[in-house]
Here is the input.
Amino acid sequence: MKYTKRLRKYIFKYKGRLFLGFLLGTLFSACDIIIPFLIGYIIDIFDEISYCSSFVCSDSLIDSIIKILLIILSLVILLILFNYFFGIIISLTGERICKDIKNDLFQKINSMSIKDIDSKQKGDLVSRIINDVDYVNTAINGAFKQFYSGLITIIFTLIFTFVLNWMLALIVLILTPISFLVSYYVAKSCYNSFKEQSSLQGNMGAKILEDLNNIELIKSSNYENESIEKYEKMNSQLFVVGKKAQFASSLTNPSTRIINNIIYAIICIVGAILCVLAY
Here is the structure.
């Protein structure tokens, strides 16, 4: 929680840009939801044409289809533009935030005493400045671009679903949290693996810097083989831990897709039953 509060200080510094990015993300999600709705409306018009007896009626319906297609084309162009600028704004904001974090880290290191610096492994400090800050940048881009756009898409989808059929909307509303719970438990299970991976990367960085700075001493002491064995052992540990972390994190997408497909199948079955009963 305390790390979230620290990060919040850097994020709120660019709240104007983030607000603009959120606005573009909202418009992107709105266009993405409206397009299938209009396509369904076109299908309904084709159904009306099949029952139309006069040419005047058919021509008016075809004109309506052309107008809707032009609207869809305009929405597709807007969707591409909104998505493009949304990605640029969020990416630039994430880079600015990481730049501010690195500047503060350098100021903190420069203000530290030599005793405190010597008590830390140099490779660990380098890993924190480079790797950990890059992870923050990846998290910001992933959270703001994917999580926010996905959240807005869910909200708009529920609104349109309630407008079309409240029963299907209730099914979506009840079953969707299952997907979030699965994602939460998968992320929670791989947290320790990523934490251990970050620690091993810091230790490996410290080992490499120490060996490179003392390369002449290692050669004169005939310590090359022992140093290589230590490095290979650490590298093997990192490989095992990294493989475990990557595998655990990769379970998020397929597990949520399975849940989403099950929800989709349930909605299709219920929707088909409702169509048959209504027919």
User: Anything to note?
Assistant: The mean pLDDT is 78. The chain has ten helices and no strands.
